[in-house]
Design goal:
Blueprint lengths: L13 H10 L4 H9 L4 H6 L2 H7 L4 H17 L3 H25 L5 H21 L20 E2 L17 E5 L9 H22 L3 E5 L23 H7 L3 H4 L4 H7 L4 E6 L7 E8 L3 H4 L5 E2 L2 E4 L4 E4 L3 E6 L2 E4 L2 H9 L1 H16 L9 H10 L10 E6 L11 H4 L3 E6 L4 H4 L1 H5 L5 E5 L11 H8 L5 E5 L15 H7 L1 H15 L5 E7 L5 H13 L6 E5 L2 H22 L1 E3 L3 H9 L10 E4 L5 E4 L1 H6 L3 E4 L9 H16 L6 H8 L10 H15 L6 E8 L5 H11 L5 E5 L5 H13 L11 E6 L3 H17 L9 E8 L3 H7 L4 E4 L5 H17 L6 H7 L6 H12 L7 H15 L5 E2 H8 L9 H7 L9 E5 L6 E5 L2 H12 L5 H10 L1 H5 L4 H13 L16 H10 L1 H14 L4 H13 L3 H14 L4 H25 L9 H23 L7 H18 L2 H4 L4 H10 L6 H4 ...
Parallel strand pairs: 1-4, 2-3, 11-12, 11-15, 12-14, 13-14, 15-16, 16-17, 21-24, 21-25, 22-23, 23-24, 33-35
Antiparallel strand pairs: 3-5, 4-5, 6-9, 7-8, 9-10, 18-19, 20-22, 26-28, 27-28, 29-30, 29-34, 31-32, 31-34, 32-33, 34-35
Helix pairs in contact: 1-2, 4-5, 8-9, 15-24, 21-22, 28-29, 30-31, 33-34, 35-39, 36-39, 37-38, 40-44, 43-44, 44-45, 45-46, 45-47, 46-47, 47-48, 47-49, 48-49, 49-54, 49-55, 54-55, 55-56, 58-59, 61-62
Length: 1532
């Protein structure tokens, strides 16, 4: 252990640490990393497992090993000086003794010499490792019995002893380390000599005895503790058995007696947790029964091996006896007396044997009570919230009939050592009642880039029981073979260690689980290894129970455990001797639920069906409410918990199903039903009555924070559970998984899948995106199953907090319900009555949240202030408890639904979680009596980890205000919180805690998420920078950046904070840091561009404020900054386009803004503005490659090339934006742009932005001309841009302004060549010309400027014949222009269909490249035109004209009409659009092309396609993906 093992760890150098790491077999790559980071002894003491994993990317196994071995080493050095001196002296003495022995002995064979050297080295090495270690005691095998026990290496047997009462055996220890390596002949002689010598001594004094081989005697084996178990390798047990054949020659006259007294050797296996070598302690018992030895004195001729003759020889006969702890020769002078006292010794032996025959009454144990107390932790019932881990081997078939108790347990995982368990063992029986995930130990091997949360999700650890086959599975075809003990120890034990460590240290907190060893078969070593790992990681047997049916099977487990924990502790945690049937009956009595856990659901025919537990577990993403929910609750549980459940709710806790059930069963008062409950019920009734065009409907409950919205939603679910199938969506599951399980719930045990009860799904506090995903997946499932619906199949009840619920009602009164703090007169009466009852039952402060609600949260500031003042009276403001209270208050004030685990609290206070049995008392005892009322106690549904939070955010805010006062700042408090490494690094609840910290610092407010406003930074940072200090806000974020391992998003936020304070140099540095951390994140790269954009804008403001003439020289810095911004936005665009799952358009919009600002600056320069032809010079400079005015040549020397490229860059950016908007829905919805990466520059109205930017661009390069027709072609192009004709999207944006639009479009057409057919258009110009004609025809069909459809078709032949060279806009126009008309001949139709089909083929390719891997619902396809009833260009009806029909409706009515498809039925729309005939075939829509060819049409709304093959009619829409079918109707 390091270069100097006698040196304190604290003083180790980096090299010594490396040496020690090698000694415990850590990988060299890890050792090198630690050495490079200069980890010395002092650093080693500070390391923890999480730090090694995160900073050094170390896997769980080596990280756990280093920490475990280091802690063991620290223990051994507590009395280091004294023990090391002893160790040093022992080593010197041992060497001297070995030297003398070699000098005095004749030289034997080379084999023996070499063996002795090896053994000496082994013993010397062992002495270094073990001499200073505190050894644990071990109980010896019961005398003259063959129990199934095991010894642990380095444990210590009771010291050698002499005769005590002749019955208790005297003991002698022999290491046999050297002899065990000899050849068979020498080994037999050595073993026989020691046994015979010891046996003679025991028989002559009439005492029982046991001689142990493989146990160290400190007098001969220096460096070891006396009685220390080492074990010896046993190659052939027969050698030791045959050695006793020397008895006949050693006792020529009495060999028969000796044979009767000397028992055969017994081989006790020695288990070494650190080695796979198999060793044994060989023990021989001596039983000199008086009936055999009466009157005898035994002489022995001891055998020894003569090295000279290479044969055994016999010494002269001697009489031996036991004297104290050794065997000595009876001297000649003592022999007469010794012979004389034979009768006395016989009498003593006879008396001892008689006393042994009387056995007192067997100790009686109340095993039933013991089992009950162990399983319930001293309570009346087994805790519902506790997880159980079972470790078991093969269970006998008879016992499998008695495992009903186990079936009802809350089992986290099972370590199963029976390979046949899934065929004929416990697993097969369990699977009859529950689902389980089959795993191996390898399954728990976590990769270093996987978080604990991801790992849990991957293995579905809390969804279904994890069944871990620890030694293979007999019918599994994968690479998990069954192993013998030795192979298992080598290959699978490391995996077992990792698995146990993962569960105990990262998944399940202490005291949230119990480990039960259920043993019904003989124990093998792997089971003991499992006990060793669990007891080590759980630091004892406190939460470990052994249940064993027979004493025989228990003995090995007992002997193994007693050596470490003592007989009393092992006995207290073991239940041995109960039949499995008795265990079953006893435990069923104390389970919190009754045996029959089968539930029932309503059915379509108003009956009921069974919901077996196994079926329920398959739908693990849903908390399903059954018609008989909670009916299994036992009377004992109701009596014990009824009052606690009620008080927790009125104190501010979340309502539970038991609250409703207790009220329904009249155990408690009803939960008040607010008016919103009736409103939701009415909406549900309307949905059930009315026919619908969608299988999925939604009702939204928007509620003030703390307003009781969640209670209303759960009341609805509870009350409707009998006539609907109801479930709550569990958080953290993806929408596709939830949809899959919701479909299973709908169809469960229904006879006809077309006729099922609707499913009511409650989704709480979910983002709009998740709700859209869920609806989309449910609709898709219904479509795939070809369900014909007239009523809703699914109703999603969304419950979300909102600061203005009434506004949501106005937006959509048919979908939305509000729950506010205001109470109606009826509600006031109910709340006043209930408050009076509660205040009589409890003190007002016990039901604070209910009091606040009854006061409507109005004028409660004074009430809360007084309440907090009273509770904080007498509190020690300097204590750690108060500091912790402040930390909780800070989180609860700024982070919705935040909490801190009890485990974090214990770590913070330095409390051992193993001292107190219950966490809650540990926390509550540390609080001032009144301060206990401030907290709500929560329990995680999965891990059962207990947490705390303050009862209400307003109370948390008031605590901060009163405890901090005017002296301390919240920013400093947040810095202190970050600096609490004990909290930051604590492993249980860590992911939640770190998420809350990140939200505290980096999650901005969003109105769309229910927040009060939209903010640039998190509410805490906003508070600190505005009310405390901008510098403190920066310091806080920098501290967070360091704590979160240089998180790129925090660096991004720091950059944004700096540029908001106009500290651009610092902003630039932090933006670069963020970009270097995440070079492939376009949002991060956009922030880097934003730094320069803001810098440029700031420089413009300075230039403007100086009121000096703008010159090239004094604007050079601003120009440079603008060009740098453009460069970074270009890079951002490139990365954004390459990102497969997102499309970030911000870089394009930002580049356009910067270019517009830069053009404006250049045009205002003195060098251009003061000239008569200044604008011409300005345009000439930017567009002519070799032209540079002399006035700006030197000042702008570095910029000329880049400035001359501005026009091209602007054109490309505008064209990209136009094309993107042509594909997808135009305006950003309220819920978009909410990712934490997005900066604040979200363009809400991109159409308007594009039109205005294009107009500015055109104005800069065209100027103002009185006669545009006389302008140059390039100027005309710029005028076209200025008027809104420069790109496809801007052209049709003109349709939003009827009056100005006609005029502008006519002007645009006048700027094109008089004879377009002979003109040579570029592709984009031709697209714009044709689009302008169509747009003008939409606004003014009678306009003479509009070309005919025939002319435009002819003109379109100028598009490239190779369609892959056509732009998407060109392909779209081809589908529009060549859509066949009824008047066309067959040949014309055939020719046109060919053109259209070819265009659509390439349109689809472009579409799929554009949408990438983004779900189509996130980027909704935009329909530009519909096929109308007229001919020519008049047959194209623009979307704006269709939308104008519903313009008079309110926003909510408009949305509902379009969503349910009612708008298509409006007469005005029906008159405009042509109904096209077609058919559906296997879910695909077709219309008939020329020659009866099938022409497939994409349905705009997939669920509208009928499932059977039907003749249909539909309206035809035109998109950039191709034609789409709208309002598909079956033709009867």
């Amino acid at each position: 252990m390091a270069d100097k093992p006698d040196q304190s760890i604290n003083n180790w150098t980096e090299s010594q640490v490396s040496t020690w790491l090698r000694s415990i077999r850590v990988k060299e790559s890890y050792i090198e990393k630690l050495y490079e980071e200069e980890v010395d002894g002092q650093s080693l003491l500070e390391l923890d497992e999480d730090f090694l994993k995160t900073r050094f990317c170390m896997k769980l196994g080596p990280a756990n090993l280093i920490i475990k071995k280091r802690d063991e080493l620290i223990k051994t050095q507590q009395n280091s000086q004294k023990k090391e001196k002893l160790c040093s002296g022992n080593k010197a003495e041992s060497k001297q003794k070995n030297k003398k022995q070699k000098q005095g002995t004749k030289q034997g064979p080379s084999q023996e010499v070499q063996n002795e050297e090896n053994v000496s080295q082994e013993m010397q090495s062992a002495s270094i490792q073990t001499a200073v270690t505190e050894k644990e005691d071990c109980k010896a095998r019961s005398f003259d019995q063959d129990p199934d026990i095991i010894y642990m290496k380095h444990r210590v047997l009771q010291p050698e002893s002499g005769a005590f009462n002749l019955i208790n055996p005297c003991r002698e220890f022999k290491s046999l380390v050297t002899a065990s390596t000899l050849d068979n002949s020498r080994l037999r002689v050595k073993f026989a000599r020691e046994v015979v010598k010891f046996a003679t001594g025991c028989m002559n004094i009439r005492s029982n005895g046991t001689i142990h081989f493989g146990v160290m005697d400190s007098r001969e084996d220096k460096g070891y503790v006396h009685g220390e178990i080492i074990g010896i390798p046993v190659k052939d047990k027969d050698i030791y058995v045959d050695a006793l054949d020397y008895i006949e020659k050693c006792f020529p006259d009495d060999s028969e007696h000796v044979r009767q007294c000397v028992r055969s050797p017994r081989f006790i296996e020695v288990m070494d947790p650190e080695s796979t070598e198999k060793r044994y302690v060989v023990e021989v018992d001596i039983v000199p029964s008086v009936s055999i030895v009466r009157g005898k004195v035994y002489q022995v001729r001891l055998v020894k091996y003569n090295e000279a003759t290479n044969k055994p020889e016999y010494e002269k006969a001697t009489i031996l006896r036991r004297v104290g702890a050794k065997t000595d020769q009876v001297s000649e002078t003592d022999q007469c007396d010794f012979f004389y006292r034979v009768k006395d010794r016989d009498a003593q032996r006879e008396e001892a044997e008689k006393s042994q025959l009387w056995i007192g009454p067997e100790n009686y144990q109340n095993l039933g009570r013991k089992l009950t107390m162990l399983m319930t932790s001293g309570k009346k019932l087994i805790e519902k919230e506790k997880w159980f881990i079972f470790v078991t081997n093969k269970i006998k078939p008879d016992d499998l009939c008695h495992i009903d108790w186990l079936v009802n347990m809350n089992i986290f995982c099972v370590f199963d050592f029976d390979p046949d368990s899934n065929k004929s063992g416990l697993c097969s029986k369990y699977l009859q009642h529950h689902n389980a995930n089959m795993h191996s130990l390898q399954s728990y091997n976590i990769s270093r880039d996987t978080s604990i949360k991801e790992f849990i999700s991957k293995l579905h650890l809390f969804d279904q029981t994890s069944w871990i086959f620890c030694n293979g599975c007999s019918d599994y075809k994968g690479s998990e073979p069954q192993c013998d003990e030795m192979s298992w120890t080598k290959t699978k034990r490391p995996l077992l260690r990792e698995t146990v460590s993962m569960i105990c240290k990262h998944i399940l907190p202490k005291e949230t689980f119990q480990v039960i060893f259920l043993i019904t078969s003989p124990i093998e070593k792997p089971l003991l290894h499992t006990l060793y790992e669990f007891s080590a990681d759980m630091q004892g047997l406190e939460d470990i129970i052994c249940i064993c049916e027979s004493q025989e099977n228990f003995q090995k487990w007992q002997s193994f455990a007693e050596g470490t924990y003592g007989a009393e502790t092992v006995n207290n945690h073991s239940v041995v001797g109960m039949k499995m049937s008795h265990i079953d009956a006893t435990l069923q009595q104390i389970q919190p639920v009754t045996k029959d856990t089968t539930k029932h659901l309503g059915t379509f025919e108003k009956g009921k069906c069974r919901l077996e537990t196994k079926a329920k577990e398959q739908m693990y993403s849903l908390e399903i409410l059954t018609t008989d929910h909670c009916d299994e609750t036992s009377e004992e549980f109701i009596e014990a918990e009824k009052e606690n459940i009620e008080r927790q709710f009125y104190h501010g806790g979340k309502v539970t199903w038991l609250n409703f059930w207790l009220a329904e069963e009249k155990f408690a008062a009803d939960v008040i039903k607010r008016d919103a409950y009736s409103e939701v019920c009415k909406l549900l009734a309307d949905l059930k009555l009315n026919t619908t065009q969608s299988p999925v409907n939604r009702i939204n409950i928007y509620h003030h924070p703390g307003g009781g919205g969640s209670t209303v939603a759960r009341q609805v679910i509870w009350e409707r559970r009998k006539d609907l199938r109801c479930a709550v969506v569990m958080p953290s599951y993806s929408a596709d998984v939830v949809a899959q399980h919701a479909v299973q719930l709908r169809e469960h045990d229904e006879r006809d899948l077309q006729r099922c009860l609707p499913v009511l799904l409650l989704v709480e506090d979910s983002e709009q995106e998740y709700l859209d995903d869920l609806r989309n997946n449910l609709e898709e499932a219904i479509c795939n199953k070809k369900i014909r619906y007239e009523k809703p199949c699914f109703i999603v009840l969304s419950c979300r907090r909102c600061n203005d619920p009434d506004k949501k009602i106005k937006e959509s009164p048919l979908e939305n319900v509000s729950v506010t703090h205001r109470l109606s007169p009826k509600e006031k009466r109910m709340f006043a009555g209930r408050r009076k009852v509660l205040e009589e039952k409890y003190q007002p402060q016990f039901v604070l949240t209910f009091v606040l609600m009854s006061e409507e949260f109005e004028n409660v500031t004074a009430y809360v202030s007084k309440f907090v003042t009273n509770l904080l009276q007498g509190i020690d403001r300097t204590s750690t408890v108060t500091r912790f209270l402040l930390y909780v208050a800070l989180l609860n004030t700024y982070v919705q639904n935040s909490f801190i685990s009890m485990s974090h609290y214990e770590a913070f206070r330095g409390l051992s979680t193993y001292v107190e049995k219950l966490r809650l008392p540990v926390f509550e005892k540390s609080l001032h009596e009144t301060a206990k009322l401030l907290f709500l106690y929560l329990r995680d549904d999965k891990t059962h980890l207990e947490s705390i939070r303050i009862i209400h955010p307003r109370v948390a805010e008031e605590i901060l205000k009163q405890l901090l006062g005017n002296q301390e700042k919240q920013g400093n408090l947040a810095k202190d919180l970050l600096a609490e490494k004990v909290l930051f690094d604590h492993r249980f609840g860590r992911e939640d805690y770190l998420a809350f910290l990140k939200a505290l610092l980096n999650r901005r407010s969003r109105i769309s998420r229910g927040d009060e406003n939209d903010s640039l930074f998190s509410p805490l940072i906003e508070h600190v920078r505005k009310n405390e200090s901008p510098d403190l806000a920066v310091e806080l974020l920098k501290e967070a950046y360091s704590c979160f391992y240089e998180d790129a998003f925090l660096a991004q936020t720091i950059a944004r904070l700096y540029y908001s304070n106009e500290k651009f140099e610092e902003a630039k540095d932090w933006a670069e840091r963020a970009a270097n951390k995440m070079p492939k994140n376009s949002y991060i790269l956009d922030t880097r561009g934003q730094v320069y954009k803001r810098w440029f804008e700031a420089k413009l403001r300075v230039i403007q404020s100086e009121r000096k003439p703008k010159t090239a020289r004094n604007t050079a810095s601003a120009v440079d900054t603008a060009l740098t911004a453009i460069k970074h936005f270009k890079h951002c665009q490139k990365v954004a386009v390459a990102e497969p799952e997102t499309m970030n358009r911000l870089g394009f919009f930002a580049e356009v803004e910067v270019v517009c600002g830069l053009l404006k600056l250049i045009s205002s320069l003195q060098e251009f503005a003061d000239r008569d032809n200044g604008h011409s010079e300005y345009v000439k400079y930017l567009t002519t490659p070799d032209y540079i005015p002399a006035d700006i040549k030197d000042a702008w020397e570095p910029f000329h090339d880049r400035l001359k490229n501005l026009q091209n860059e602007m054109t490309e950016a505008l064209e990209w934006i136009s094309e993107d908007l042509s594909y997808f829905q135009k305006d950003v919805e309220a819920h978009e742009g909410e990712t934490s990466e997005s900066p604040e520059e979200v363009v809400k109205h991109p159409l308007r932005f594009l039109a205005e930017a294009a107009s500015k661009y055109g104005k800069h390069f065209s100027g103002v001309s009185s006669n545009p027709s006389t302008c140059s072609p390039s100027t005309k192009r710029m005028i076209i841009h200025r008027l809104g004709g420069g790109n496809f999207t801007s052209i049709f944006y003109n349709l939003t302004n009827q009056q100005e639009g006609v005029k502008d479009l006519q002007t645009i057409l006048s700027l094109y060549p008089k004879n377009p057919m002979t003109a040579k258009f570029q592709q984009n110009e031709l697209v714009n010309y044709i689009a302008t004609n169509i747009a003008l025809n939409c606004l003014s069909p009678q306009s003479k400027e509009v070309a005919s459809l025939h002319d435009l078709q002819a003109l379109s032949h100028q598009f490239p014949t190779e369609k892959q060279r056509c732009s998407p806009s060109a392909l779209f126009l081809l589908t529009l222009l060549f859509w066949p008309e009824d008047s066309d001949t067959k040949d014309e139709k055939s020719q046109k269909f060919g053109i259209v089909q070819s265009a659509i083929e390439y349109l689809k390719r472009e579409y799929f490249a554009k949408i990438k891997d983004i779900p189509s619902r996130k980027r909704k396809l935009y329909t530009h035109f519909y096929l109308g009833n007229r001919n020519g260009l008049d047959k194209f009806v623009h979307k704006s004209k269709i939308e104008s029909v519903t313009k008079s409706l309110t926003l909510s009515e408009k949305r509902m009409k379009w969503y349910h498809g009612e708008a298509w039925k409006m007469p005005e729309i029906a008159q405009m659009l042509r109904s096209v005939s077609g058919w559906t075939e296997d879910g695909v829509v077709y219309l008939e092309g020329p020659g009866k060819k099938k022409f497939s049409i994409q349905p705009l709304h997939l669920p509208s396609v009928p499932y059977s093959n039907e003749n249909v009619t539909f309206y035809l829409g035109f998109t950039f993906r191709g034609p789409v079918a709208c309002n598909i109707t079956v033709k009867r």
